[in-house]
Design goal:
Helices cover about 35% and strands about 15% of the residues. It is an alpha/beta fold and about 350 residues long.
């Protein structure tokens, strides 16, 4: 299939990030055998703008460039992510020019951020299918528009998540939580409380918080590869199947992942993979339990890593999105569809 993938492909990061879900989707589409053209709206804006200053770019020109790409490439599917510079009118024009082309959207941000929720609703007016990293039950708010609504997970990429901390008994970091976002959340209080209660010999690293610099690129890869356990704290909890993309980054590298029980990942995750907690007390107790029993930590983390790489990898992820959007029979028994 010929696919134009419209998203922020972060070309101007110059290697400072490799864990982007959009880049994983692009790579998965290629691995699944599709001919994929990447259209990075923000990078096109910088390229087309006077003096390469993105803020000076003509929005109309960026949208014309996408139409130009569609005319030249003749896609069967236009798949878009977080591309705020592309207007719904442009997608409508693509549909007018190429009535047989399927248009599908992906959104990997939380529903509790008003701006993002409004964006999903807006894109559902024009897309044939919309994929969101939250369970379909929570998506009924957007029903009744053009788009059909579907869950998409956070996938691992075997070429990105290459470490296996579950195979190593000696690692410098006992627990890792990386975060720089403070909006719409109070998780910093939980992190601070854990720091105060964990024993002195428990190495808990929190890059991006409490005045520490965030880690990007290889610095982030290195700390993941040197950590035994990871906290998957979302800015807000209680949304079924919703998680930050860090869940795949940690699980895929063999860290033992602690995540809130309210997300209900046990719906499709096997037993003895993710560790669930429902309050600070249960989280602290389990952190200490796995800290004392490293064989148990390695067993659970190894099972989780193997499951993610086998069943929630970016090739299957891409195949599922394409097959669902195009109305094709499923070629795999996707665990999140069961």
């Amino acid at each position: 299939m010929r696919i134009i993938h419209v998203d922020n492909h972060q070309q101007r990061k110059y290697g400072r990030t490799s864990v982007s879900w959009a880049l994983k989707l692009y790579t998965g589409l290629v691995r699944a055998g599709h001919n994929v053209l990447a259209f990075s709206d923000r990078d096109v804006a910088a390229f087309e703008a006077p003096l390469r200053i993105r803020e000076l770019a003509s929005r109309k020109k960026i949208n014309r460039r996408l139409l130009q790409a569609v005319e030249a490439f003749e896609p069967d599917l236009v798949l878009f992510g977080h591309c705020d510079l592309i207007d719904n009118d442009t997608f409508a024009e693509i549909r007018r020019l190429r009535p047989g082309t399927v248009i599908a959207g992906c959104n990997n941000d939380p529903l509790f951020v008003p701006r993002n929720s409004d964006s999903i609703a807006h894109r559902c007016e024009i897309a044939d299918a919309m994929f969101v990293s939250t369970g379909t039950g929570e998506l009924q708010h957007y029903a009744g528009r053009r788009a059909t609504l579907h869950h998409m997970p956070n996938p691992v990429d075997p070429s990105v998540e290459t470490a296996d901390c579950s195979a190593r008994p000696e690692l410098p970091v006992d627990l890792l939580f990386c975060s720089k976002s403070q909006a719409h959340t109070e998780r910093g209080r939980l992190v601070q409380s854990l720091k105060e209660q964990l024993p002195a010999d428990f190495e808990f690293r929190t890059p991006g918080m409490f005045g520490q610099p965030a880690l990007w690129g290889r610095d982030y890869d290195h700390i993941l590869a040197g950590s035994k356990m990871g906290l998957n704290l979302n800015r807000q909890e209680g949304y079924r199947w919703y998680s930050s993309a860090r869940i795949a980054q940690m699980a895929g590298n063999g860290l033992l992942v602690f995540t809130h029980a309210a997300a209900r990942f046990e719906d499709f995750m096997p037993e003895e993979t993710l560790v669930y907690f429902d309050n600070e007390t249960s989280l602290l107790q389990q952190l200490l339990e796995f800290h004392r029993d490293d064989d148990k930590r390695r067993h659970w983390a190894g099972r989780c890593r193997e499951f993610f790489h086998r069943e929630i990898n970016n090739t299957l992820y891409a195949r599922y999105i394409v097959e669902t959007a195009a109305g094709l029979p499923y070629s795999h028994d996707y665990v999140w569809v069961r």
